[in-house]
Amino acid sequence: MKFFRRHVGVAVLVAMGAVTGITGVTAGSDSTELQQRLDGLLADSRYQGSQVALVVRDATTGEVLYDRNSGNRVLPASNTKLFTSAAALETLGADFRFHTDVLTTGKTYGGVLAGPLYLKGYGDPTSLESDYRALARQVAATGIRRVVGDLVADDTFFDNRRLGNGWSWDDESFYYSAQTSALTVAPDTDYDSGTVIVESAPGATVGAPAQLKLIPQTSAVQLVNTSKTGPAGSAYTLNIERDHGSNVVRITGSIPADDTGGQDWVAVWEPANYAADIFRRALAAEGVQVLGKIRTGATPATSRRLAHDESMTMAELMVPFMKLSNNMHGEALLKRMGNGDWDRGLAVTRSYLQSNGVDVAAMRMVDGSGLSRMNNLTADGIADLLVAAQREPWFGAWYASLPIAGNADRAIGGTLRNRMRNTAAANNVHAKTGTLTGVTALSGYVTNADGRKLVFSFVSNNFMVSPRPIEDAVAITLASWSDRADVPTITPNGQRVAPAEAELECSKQKDC
Question: What average pLDDT score do residues 198-203 get?
Answer without folding.
Answer: 97
